[in-house]
Amino acid sequence: MKFKGKLALQQRVLPSYRVPFFDLLAQSCEGMSLFAGQARPVEMISNGRTQIAKYVEARNIHLLSGPFYLCHQPGFVNWLEDWNPDALIMEANPRYLSTPAAVKWMHARGRKVIGWGLGAPKRSLVWQKFIRQFDAMLSYSQRGADEYAALGFPREKIFVAHNSVSAKPERKPDDRPLTMDRAAILFVGRLQARKRVDSLLHACAEMESKPRLMIVGDGLERVALESLAKQVYPSAEFVGAKHGAELKPYFEQADLFVLPGTGGLAVQEAMSYGLPVIVAKGDGTQDDLVREGNGWQIQPEDYGALVSAMKNALSDRARLRKMGKESFRIVSEEINIQKMVEVFVDALNSLG
Hints:
The chain is an alpha/beta fold. It folds into two domains: 3-165 and 336-350, Glycogen Phosphorylase B (Rossmann fold), CATH 3.40.50.2000; 184-333, Rossmann fold, CATH 3.40.50. It is built from 13 helices and 15 strands. Strands 3-2-1-6-7-8-9 form a seven-stranded parallel sheet, with helices on both faces. It has a six-stranded parallel sheet with strand order 12-11-10-13-14-15. Helix 9 (267-272) links the parallel strand 13 (256-259) and strand 14 (277-280). It is elongated. The two termini are 14 Å apart.
């Protein structure tokens, strides 16, 4: 199924991890142009470039910061005039000042606009009025879809495109042995305070059978974490930043993937290698990805919950393997960028 029309898609920024999805979506349209600007240096986002979707770089004007942050993208309407799309998908965020003019331009020509977002965290009149301007909504998660519906947006016009950054796995991972001398725990991600790797080090020290701990990544916190590890868990392995195929041996050696803090894109990749996961709760995308059958969700600042989940996970090796197989099934059958594209196309075709 394809969208028989030209698609315009707006983003505030174009992270490198979104490029495979956007290029795959572009192949499902008669043409696709992507309008996105550069991230602020403080965000530490790696900007990407599409190969199939036509990329037009926006000029982001960042205003204020924190809870008062606003973004203006001058040239938005000029881009629409040049591309002349049949439909527009744009970030559903009231902080983006260019949205009303873009929606007005599309609607004046009888064309549809779809909002795409995490949900509406506050049931406010501002959010209610904001989402009302869209013809349909794409949500990253079921939680987000429920939030849009709670604001009065028609449920039949809300589509859940499970947030994914990974393609459907090409092959099933080899079965791991049911017995192991020493469990291996893996963390992959940027070493930042919010990732709570310090908590992971302390938690490993509390395990009765001390696991092998592999920490893959780099960042500002690395020196401090290595110093802490010498005190609380000297056997921790800091292997530095690894990307692409370099990550494969670490995923294959692991028995359990743990992400104790917020954020993180490696969860789906870990699941594609048949790993059960422990992740901190966040924006709702984890709710659909991590379930009772394949892992544990914990509060990001709840150290006791982290220790409890790790002890629970490592207490039953046969169950751990079974949960890993369920992880693989989820990313193979339900949550991957191919499924995400299918939902986007369904939403576009629903507009008539």
